[in-house]
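input
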Amino acid sequence: MRILGSGFGSAAGERRVVFTGPGPAGVEGTILSWNDDGVSVLVPAGTVVGGVAIVEGERRSNALLFEVASDLVSFVDDLRPIFSRQGCASCHGGTNDLFLDTPASILRGGNHGPAAIPRRGAESLLVRVLRGPADGINRMPFGSPQIPAADILLIEDWVNQGVRNN
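output
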């Protein structure tokens, strides 16, 4: 993590960078570099959301809120295998108005409009119909077992990351 600003000083000295949030309070991060306009620090394992502050003796800066980004989801490496494994292409690869073969076709959508809204995964039709019926559409894949929740979360993460063609 890089904390940018000014007036940090040329070296950490006795200062520490402390993370707070769910889990153990006051976990110290490992400082990688320190200069007057920024601090680089390793986020402690398991710390994904909360506050981060600079502590010197008994003084603590105001905490900045942070959230660790999820791993970048690849359409080619992560989503295509899900769609293939679940047999989605049998209906959405040529015999239906919605195609799942490219991010552009998912954005274009089908009879019910765009299947994904970039950066709005939970609102996207694709994610909603994988979780259950939505907007008059049956849960997908229709007539097959539900896609595992972890795969649906991966698809939602991909949409939240901007429906990238990667």
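quick obs: Strands lie at 2-4, 16-20, 27-28, 30-35, 38-42, 49-56, 59-60, 64-67.
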